[in-house]
Amino acid sequence: MTAAPPSAAERPASTRYWEVDALRGLMLVLMTLTHLPSRLTDPLGQPLGFVSAAEGFVLLSAFMAGLVYTRTAYRDGVDAMRRAFWQRALKIYMAQAATLLFLFTIIAAVGLRIDQPAVKDLMSYYLTQPRHAFLYGLALVYEPPLLDILPMYIFFMLLSPWVLAFSLRHGWAAVALASTAVWAAAQFGLSEWIYNGVVHWTGLPVPFQEMGAFNAYAWQFLWFMGLWLGASRSMPGAKPLRLPHWLLVASVAIALYGLYWRHHGPDGQAPFGGDVQLNLLFDKWLLGPLRLVNLVALGVLAIAFGPALMRRLPRLHWLEAMGSASLPVFCAHLVAVLLVLAFYGSSQTARPAWGDAVLLSVVFAVFYGVARATLWVDARKAARARRGD
User: Fold this and answer.
1) How many whole angstroms separate alpha carbon 259 and alpha carbon 94?
2) Rounded average pLDDT over 195-213
3) Residue 21 phi, psi (nearest 5)
4) Confidence at residue 389, expressed as pLDDT on a 0 to 100 scale
């Protein structure tokens, strides 16, 4: 049996999981390299198998939410936990609204002025239906590409206090069963069925394909499993996770095979080439079943071997800072990607190799600056709160 890291109950209440912050920072780096067109986009897209940085980021964010808000519920009560979730959801909504306005104004103006196809494709619905796009965008119904992650986060953050309060009273079995059932239904068209019903009864004008690539009914499974894992680490008397030997062996085999298949298979990031039906088993947007298997295998290895690896590696404080300030850095990543698309288009070879190196260096330097500034402001607010200002 292999022991995982100690529970949150064994750490001081004020202590962050710096390892999780570093991993979230790494996920932000990988997302940027995937979304920002460069020579690194394809090689570093899904680098560890048929799993992207988005899955890791959602799972880690859910873990931290479960960890932090369960502590709040035990310390200050369930009502305080609900308020904390709602405040965070409002902050994420404001970030989404600001990014949308940036897309609809500055990016639209630049893209139209230089006739940039990448921008026109990105916001085609807005260009044909600006009024509907603006209103439904603020209502989180219209979700342009790249701007479809935060609305899903808001949806999860609004559901989480009710789910967490229920699980604290009744356990996680019913939550896990319901979440699994919704994920399974999503594989067979749940979202399309609900969309058609809404259109029938309300006349919703937003096309289905303009409502975001991520299927929230499938991705909620990943969020709530991460929430459970984080909450379980905050339970009174929580013991370290112990993983059976057979699970470690199976996870090593699956992870290595997925890694080899991703980088040495004939079709790269498309596991089954042009076979659409088989590719759905690994589908990112639906969180296909084989993709989940690959993700679980990597997660088991991270739990089993991550702590020992972290003790041997130097702490990368710049990654920790980016992970601690994940929301502002994520929004900065969207701004950077949109600007590059507006000026250079979606070509991965629009710049020479040295140009990619300079661009990425500047982008990540800006991200680190955003992270440090955010943490400085947060520290000042915390200090004023302690003084009672």
Assistant:
1) 38
2) 95
3) -60, -40
4) 59
Angle between helices 78-102 and 150-170 (to 10 degrees): 170
Beta carbons within 10 angstroms of residue 286's beta carbon: 22
Q: How confident is the model at residue 8 (pLDDT cuts 50, 70, 90)?
A: very low
The residue among 117, 159, 122 whose CA lies nearest residue 142 is 122
**What span, in angstroms and rounded, lies between the C-alpha atoms of 266 and 247?**
29
**DSSP β-bridge partners for residue 211:** 143
Within 8 A by CB and 6+ apart from 90, the residues are none
Domain boundaries, the chain: 2-384
Residue pointed to by tokens 């040495």: 264
| Residue among 326, 324, 354, 355 nearest 32 (CA) | 326
Give the number of other CB atoms < 10 A from CB of residue 120: 14
> What would the mean pLDDT of 283-310 be, rounded to a whole number?
93
Question: Distance between CA atoms of 349 and 185, rounded to whole angstroms?
Answer: 40
| Owner of token pair 């290895």 | 301
How deeply is 160 buried, as exposed, middle or buried, from its count of CB atoms within 10 A (0-12, 13-18, 19+)? Answer: buried
Q: How far is CA 328 from CA 225, 335, 372, in A?
A: 25, 11, 10
For 296-331, give the DSSP string.
HHHHHHHHHHHHHHHHHSPP-HHHHHHHHTHHHHHH
DSSP 8-state secondary structure symbol assigned to residue 49:
S
More confident: 265 or 231: 231
**Tokens in use for 27?**
């996920």
Q: Cα separation of 90 and 95, whole Å?
A: 9
Can you tell me the distance from the alpha carbon of 271 to that of 266, in angstroms, rounded to the nearest whole number?
8
Query: Across residues 9-22, what is the average pLDDT?
Result: 65
* pLDDT on residue 1: 43
The closest of 154, 151, 104 to 129, measured between CA atoms, is 104
The pLDDT assigned to 6 comes to: 45
d(CA 346, CA 340): 8
Quickly state the pLDDT bin for 387 (edges 50, 70, 90). confident
The mean per-residue pLDDT over the stretch 236-265 comes to 88
